[in-house]
């Protein structure tokens, strides 16, 4: 039986057990990863997994059961357990299984690379990254380099008429060199992830970039506390989009626990700024042909010309707010759906990163963030940071052990993007400049 036939059999078992409606999700995957440090292989790991989850509804009550054994002989027992659990849990009038939508016409997403690299190919990627890093003057050690490959298969079927499946591959390579000696050592890292191996960044280039940055971070200072412009390197700039996505998550809006709960239609960012969520991007790291409830997905401008246009909604949060789902349900086999973005990014601005900082007399350029000091209710923001001072429009001495603080509402309004957007992480932003933040140092 193929995956969708197996899910149909599980849904039939749920109906026989007394479920009024149900959905079933199946995930299977294979992964291979290697680790290397200072020329020696430290890890080779291969894993395979199969899981299935069943969600059943009895009236307004629901329950979920999951299993790592996909065996039709056990479906009846699994369904009976789920229905028995559903009958004793509290009612939830907002939680339902939505009707299947009309399938849209869409271009192929090209999410499955047919090439499967072996151990030797992955070790070669890791070796290229680490050897390039170790060749940089000033590098004294290594935390290692790694490479990985995986392929997963997702299938979803509901008693409301939806059935769909897709496959996804993933390739990755990472490296983390160390510069300096003793207590003065500094580390940095680089990585690349892609759906197709051909789209990975050059491993040697990653190694050199990480090593050069590690060397440049030696002998950091701890500057005096100041209020100044803060510029975020792209690898940390995406974290600000993550905070934004959390603030417009429909579950948080329905609970009233977001600092943006009353902001629909308001100017959240400066005019001209747009933030896009695009689950249909070809070879996107988080692309998908349907969401976790089998609903239609589409490209959406969450922020358009600075204004908030929508929440991220699954069917439950949409029902709580009296709205329609936006196709942002995400889920695993052991939990209910919840809203989440897909390929999220901020559109680039007009200035180069160099031009963005050219007029800054004194500022901070952040390349690493530490901790998660963000209050989702008030928007207050405070995170440890490391990077470089900006003096007279140029990067200057390295700094560490500082804190950058502000309020996300104010930060968003005073944010300017550069023109260097690259799709590398699933949540992506160009270099970002934010005015008037507090840097707490010595």
From TrEMBL:
<dbReference type="InterPro" id="IPR002510">
    <property type="entry name" value="Metalloprtase-TldD/E_N"/>
</dbReference>
<dbReference type="InterPro" id="IPR045569">
    <property type="entry name" value="Metalloprtase-TldD/E_C"/>
</dbReference>
<dbReference type="InterPro" id="IPR035068">
    <property type="entry name" value="TldD/PmbA_N"/>
</dbReference>
<dbReference type="InterPro" id="IPR045570">
    <property type="entry name" value="Metalloprtase-TldD/E_cen_dom"/>
</dbReference>
<protein>
    <recommendedName>
        <fullName>Peptidase U62, modulator of DNA gyrase</fullName>
    </recommendedName>
</protein>
<dbReference type="Pfam" id="PF01523">
    <property type="entry name" value="PmbA_TldD_1st"/>
</dbReference>
<dbReference type="GO" id="GO:0006508">
    <property type="term" value="P:proteolysis"/>
</dbReference>
<dbReference type="Pfam" id="PF19289">
    <property type="entry name" value="PmbA_TldD_3rd"/>
</dbReference>
<feature type="domain" description="Metalloprotease TldD/E N-terminal">
    <location>
        <begin position="22"/>
        <end position="86"/>
    </location>
</feature>
<comment type="similarity">
    <text>Belongs to the peptidase U62 family.</text>
</comment>
<dbReference type="Pfam" id="PF19290">
    <property type="entry name" value="PmbA_TldD_2nd"/>
</dbReference>
<dbReference type="GO" id="GO:0005829">
    <property type="term" value="C:cytosol"/>
</dbReference>
<dbReference type="GO" id="GO:0008237">
    <property type="term" value="F:metallopeptidase activity"/>
</dbReference>
<dbReference type="InterPro" id="IPR036059">
    <property type="entry name" value="TldD/PmbA_sf"/>
</dbReference>
<feature type="domain" description="Metalloprotease TldD/E central">
    <location>
        <begin position="113"/>
        <end position="218"/>
    </location>
</feature>
<feature type="domain" description="Metalloprotease TldD/E C-terminal">
    <location>
        <begin position="226"/>
        <end position="441"/>
    </location>
</feature>
<dbReference type="InterPro" id="IPR047657">
    <property type="entry name" value="PmbA"/>
</dbReference>
